[in-house]
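--- STAGE predict ---
source: upstream dedup step, 1 unique chain passed
mode: sequence only
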Amino acid sequence: MNTHYFLLSLLLAFAVPVIVVSYLRPILMRVLHTLCDADGGAEFWIRCAYVLTISGTVLMTLMFGGFDAGIEPLSMLRRTLVIVMGGVFLSIGIISRRVWFQVRQLQHAQRQATMLAQVVSSQGVSS
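--- STAGE serialize ---
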């Protein structure tokens, strides 16, 4: 096992998810503030996103990474990036799917409330 390859792979597995979630953080905070009434709820879910993406990519890198002493550096880098990006893709995909499910439920509830308010106001006008 090549220690330098191993450490570089772990660094990438940690840094890439942090960069990705940091990029998504501002818009994710706005969406989560809409969905979470609890104080600190949005921040909790952001921190969960960090933990999930980092742990997912580190786990995948440890399981499938190539750290053999005879491997070419470019080959190791390519393999590590494929694993890390796959882990980020899966983690963000799972998080996005769950958030989007909640957004759809909120939108549906708001539409129903709007329609109910229109029905009540139209019945009040015609009475």
